[in-house]
Amino acid sequence: MARKKIALIGSGQIGGTLAHLAALKELGDIVLFDIVDGVPQGKALDISQAAPAEGYDAKIKGTSEYKDIEGADVVIVTAGVPRKPGMSRDDLLEINLKVMEQVGAGIAKYAPDSFVICITNPLDAMVWALQKFSGLPHNKVVGMAGVLDSSRFCHFIAEELGVSVKDVNAFVLGGHGDTMVPLARYSTVAGIPLTDIVKMGWLSKEKLDEIIQRTRDGGAEIVGLLKTGSAFYAPAASAIAMAESYLKDKKRVLPAAAYLDGSYGVKGCYVGVPIIIGAGGSEKVIEIALNGSEQKAFDNSVAAVEGLIEACKKIAPKLA
Ligand code: A3D
């Protein structure tokens, strides 16, 4: 069986890390694409030269031509600009929307059968626009944010309780922004919901609230520390988990920005919800029951995403 092909549109901080992780996991051959000539070629050569030391087999090519992504099984999109300190994800809307138009055209022409994972911010609006610009089916275009946000939540919980991250399962719903909804009731340590862990006195309510807020601000905390650019190791690892689930038909249940056509009472936009990712792409949206305050927080998050989509339509009327 021929190796799978993974195309990475954008070869910056996340793109380079994605290429390295995909190679280490031997997910397939890799094409790094970027408009800045030399960067994808340089990173491809560097990662290829790490192969003998690491012992992986993968062909890695750097390119500035869309035709090289032809036939890709998975396309992961990070093209665009990241945040600088003081900027919100939404400040990137106008510039990254133009980038999505070019990327969508490239995917439509050369990789129309691929599974597309968008990472470019503001995530929920960009994945919506990328699906429109590419014309690929909704189940084949998803956004990566929930795995990352949940991973951050997990890390903070595991660190606070002094337990292995392997035993922590955390859930974050909604848009990837300040309105995201970390769900304590559906987040567990070895199956015990965090709400029960608070009742048991293992974690205080104040500490849990602090962790929830730190999760919401997780991206900004790293932007503030790095000063140039935003997080890239954890975002790349999160997208690779999604790509692997698709390529190996693992049917993992992962939170991701998925197209909602009525579930959760939402129609026509991408929002972070749990989905099953398998060979069919986004195979099923899992609709979990929300209580009053969770529903309110989710609705608030959906409203923020809808606002961004309206802003996209104003900038690019053909999306309307
Ligand atoms: P960066 O290192 O700047 O890489 C972006 C790359 O995109 C650069 O190499 C650019 O040359 C390239 N690029 C720009 N325009 C185009 C174009 N038209 N076609 C192809 N390539 C282009 O950024 P990064 O890798 O750190 O981040 C990439 C994106 O991911 C940004 O929008 C971030 O805000 C976003 N991001 C999202 C998350 C989520 O959880 C959703 C987390 C972290 C970063």
From TrEMBL:
Signal peptide: none annotated. The keyword Oxidoreductase applies. Its EC number is 1.1.1.37. The active site is at H176 (proton acceptor). It is an enzyme of class 1 (oxidoreductase). NCBIfam families: MalateDH_bact, PRK06223.1. This is Malate dehydrogenase. It comes from Devosia pacifica.
